[in-house]
Write a structure and sequence with these properties.
Elements: E1 6-12, E2 15-29, E3 32-41, H1 50-64
Antiparallel strand pairs: 1-2, 2-3
């Protein structure tokens, strides 16, 4: 995996309860260079903040790469 792509998992007690994958945009939309390909939270763990945590992690990763817009 190149450093232009990111995949992150969320775990609780060693069990994967969510993940996301992102990288360069696969479509050409003016101003958008990054894309969130997928984000998933296990149904038993939804509404617990895991999705927000994953999205926040992704946003911070984008800021660290000096990106601020994604599809």
């Amino acid at each position: 995996i190149s450093d232009s792509r990111i995949r992150v998992v969320a775990e609780i007690n060693g069990r994967i309860v969510g993940f996301f994958g992102a990288g360069p945009s696969r479509v050409s939309i003016s101003g958008y260079t990054e894309e969130l390909y997928a984000i998933y939270v296990d149904p038993m763990n939804q509404r617990s903040g895991i999705g927000r945590m994953l999205l926040k992690y992704y946003m911070n990763w984008l800021i660290g790469r000096e990106q601020d817009a994604f599809v």
